Amino acid sequence: MKKFTLLASLIVGVMFVVACGGGDDGGSDSPAATSAPAPTATTAPAPTVDAGPDPAELIATGKTKYGSCSACHGLDGRGVPGLGKDLVESAFMDGLSDAELVDFIKVGRGPSDEGNTTGIAMPPKGGNPSLSDDDLLAIVAYIDSL
Ligand code: HEC
After folding, report:
1. CA dihedral 119, 124, 128, 131 (to 10 degrees)
2. Which residues line ligand 1 (CB under 6 A)?
3. Residue 126: which of 58, 67, 50 has the closest Cα?
4. Which partner from 55, 95, 97, 133 sits 20 to 30 angstroms from 41, CA to CA?
5. Domains parsed from the chain with CATH numbers
6. Which atom belonging to ligand 1 lies closest to the Cα atom of 128?
């Protein structure tokens, strides 16, 4: 019987301590609960990663496709005297949107074109008809990165 009494008082004692401790924890739980929405908000930036996945990839693709232009415009885009103009310091390129530049490159600029400044032909697509609009857009992005 004494053992039971001892056990019973132990249980009561433990419950008392747990109850007091629980009360304290309960007080500190409330602020933790109100901070819960913060992690939900930090998941928001994830979609913005989807919004801008391409630039580096586009430039890398453009770099490989730029081989169709480098013979006349130079590997560094600075132009080859007597063959093609500087594309890096081009006021003409600065004045056009990427889409307008794609349209320009598709047509080129013949020697008799009144906009021609060198008397040398800029062939349509640089003379490589296999370049798609996407290829040309990538090339423009690459030139812009130079
Ligand atoms: C066979 C040589 C040749 C190749 C290849 C060539 N171009 Fe040209 N490009 C020229 C010449 C020459 C001009 C300048 C024409 C003129 O006198 O206005 C020019 C002009 C340009 C211009 C206008 C620059 C300015 O400031 O007026 C752009 C943009 C351009 N080329 C882009 C390209 C791209 C992109 C490629 C590759 C897809 C390419 N070119 C391939 C010869 C070439």
Report:
1. 140
2. 68-69, 71-73, 83-85, 87, 90, 92-93, 101, 105, 109, 116-118, 120, 122-123, 125-127, 139
3. 67
4. 55
5. 53-145 (1.10.760.10)
6. 38
Q: State the chain's mean pLDDT as an integer.
A: 80
Contact assessment for residue 122 and residue 108, using Cβ atoms and an 8 Å cutoff: yes
State if pTM tops 0.85. no
Query: What is the spatial distance between Cα 115 and Cα 52, in angstroms, rounded to a whole number?
Result: 36
Q: Which of the listed residues 65, 66, 73, 103 should we mutate to test ligand 1's pocket, taking the one with most ligand atoms within 8 A of CB? A: 73
pLDDT value for 55: 87
Highest mean pLDDT among 8-17, 19-28, 56-65: 56-65
Distance (angstroms) between ligand 1 centre and the Cα of 95 equals: 15
Confidence (pLDDT) at 41: 56
